[in-house]
């Protein structure tokens, strides 16, 4: 099978042999797939330099099975480097997709949401982009929750009451001691990323994602925390940039 | 065809980069037939290096001493620290640039998806060195790749949080090349990093 000029992003590259790379790719029409880029690490390889994460690409490949062979890659538009925390945030997004979407998976609009998320990360602030993507990813994978409704649709969530989010059952009534405010859930449902809601939304999504990640946190977040400790920014509020952690 | 010892030797040579079955066979036959003394020397040198060579306490360059010759030298500028990704980068700079300061070798670059983070790059050690008070400027000589740029961003945060100046080597068009053949990314970096020309700089 030959595929020509398919839009895609590289999520991760792994060296293979002395001169090749294995690419983990999210493509527009073929979803998540692995590609073998033969000779891509040779000093004069034509694709050297463009096979990097976060760069929109036009990819061509041939072959079937687990690992088709990349035949061409062209950059799509100009490439803005990710700086500072945006780099870690983008790595976090890639790690989420790699962990939750297996090769061969093709969850609907994920490619479009991923592209919008990367564009959002290049601008400030980055946290709304992350939270929106987490919510969209859960929806795409069929793990979506009706945030504005108790028990996935029976009763509407009230702004002034308190609730708990169960990954399988959805939103259930709770008390102030062990719950989150209804207004934060309504903000999450309506993509209203107010600063006062973001820390609540982070805790809500973190719980659901950790459940879907089977309790295993992501490395990008841990590394950002290490870096913050070294630069003396270890006590940043959860709203600045937050990750699921084990 | 090959005895067990020779088969093992052939396999052993193939751990080297670029050495396939034919190259390994050529090397084995050469050592066995024409240069047994050289082979003995190679074996002893390899074993001794593997046993004794570790990383410099200060800069993480390969050395069998506590400090590598560059860190131990009193003639280097102790206030300048150049951060490179690997020993090959250090050697390239030493051989081609008149740099007289000290180094720090990361042995990689930030790559969270491949498990390479601040700890793997020895950034705790680098932070402790910056806390020492001798360093006046950190020169970041990481590769102009996505991960290399993120690495230099992280280290510049480390330096600036301690009030130490950080600079990055320029990215741009290679000397002797033509602009029209440069790729768009290189040209963009070259434009972003353009330097003012004046009486002091036009040389």
Describe the protein in words.
- The complex is a heterodimer of chains A (246) and B (203).
- With 246 residues, chain A is α+β, with helices and mostly antiparallel strands.
- Chain A is built from 6 helices and 10 strands, in the order E-E-E-E-E-H-H-H-E-E-E-E-E-H-H-H.
- Chain A folds into 2 domains: 74 residues, Beta Barrel (OB fold (Dihydrolipoamide Acetyltransferase, E2P)), CATH 2.40.50; 147 residues, Recombination protein O, C-terminal domain (de novo design (two linked rop proteins), Up-down Bundle).
- In chain A, the strands form 3 sheets. Chain A has a 5-stranded antiparallel sheet with strand order 3-2-1-4-5. Chain A has a 3-stranded antiparallel sheet with strand order 9-8-10.
- In chain A, strand 1 and strand 2 form a beta hairpin.
- The relative contact order of chain A is 0.11.
- Chain B has 2 domains: 49 residues, Orthogonal Bundle (Helicase, Ruva Protein, domain 3), CATH 1.10.8; 125 residues, Dna Topoisomerase Vi A Subunit, Chain: A, domain 2 (3-Layer(aba) Sandwich).
- In chain B, 43% of the residues lie in helices and 13% in strands.
- The longest helix of chain B has 17 residues.
- Chain B is globular, with a radius of gyration of 22 Å.
- By secondary structure, chain B is an alpha/beta fold.
- Chain B has a 4-stranded parallel sheet with strand order 4-3-5-6.
- In chain B, strand 3, helix 5 and strand 4 form a beta-alpha-beta unit.
- Chains A and B meet through strand 1, helix 1 and helix 6 of A and helix 6, helix 7 and helix 8 of B.
